[in-house]
Amino acid sequence: MLRKEDITGLILAGGKGSRVNGNDKGLMLYLGRPLIEQQIEWLRPQVSTIIISANRNLDYYATLGYPVVSDSNDEFRGPMHGVFQAIKKCSSHYLYVHPVDMPNLPDNLIHSICAVLFRVKVTDPNNERLSFYLKSKQREHYLSMLISANLVEELKEFLTNGGNRVRDFHQTIASLAVALDLPESAFLNLNHSREY
Fold it and tell me: How far apart are CA 68 and CA 86, in angstroms?
């Protein structure tokens, strides 16, 4: 079974913030505190270390005490580019990817994912899947994923060939959907300024 020592957490905070008037979501206040600080607090007990993907306000993110990665240019190229920059620096076996604007997931989320994967391996010892994403009863949540650091070359090839959509990458590498019986409200994205 995967342990927290096997997993690095990636917080994705590198988007354009087009739905929140161009603001940097990681710095936006939610319940009186910047989202990035709350998400570090949520993720830290579940993983060995954390990487932050950001494309603005890099000096601020650097003060939080974790490595910060950025896209290779200023074009806000999408979340998979942030994942690629992080997976290149990942020193653990797996990378758990977490969008900065999802504050409602349970505190034991990654442990629950690992427990499901353990059961999968017990029932199907030949299952060699290296990437997993979450789903609720209503839909898939492709960006909430656990991905092996060994897939760095596959991700590089996907991006080099013009791939960009998270769902397409999962289909390319035959990721496994993991259902944790969570309500859709647990996956709430804070996508509008009025929600802060």
Answer: 8
CA distance 195 to 193: 5
Give the per-residue pLDDT at 135: 93
What total number of domains does the chain contain? 1
CB burial class (10 A; 0-12, 13-18, 19+) of residue 17?
buried
Write out the residue range of the structural domain in which residue 166 sits.
4-195
C-alpha to C-alpha distance for 72 and 120, rounded to whole angstroms: 37
CATH of the domain at 171: 3.90.550.10
Q: Between 74 and 49, where is the model more confident?
A: 49
What pTM did the predictor assign? 0.90
Dist. CA 24–CA 2, nearest whole Å: 33
DSSP secondary structure string, 84-121? HHHHHH--SSEEEEEETT---S-TTHHHHHHHHHHHHH
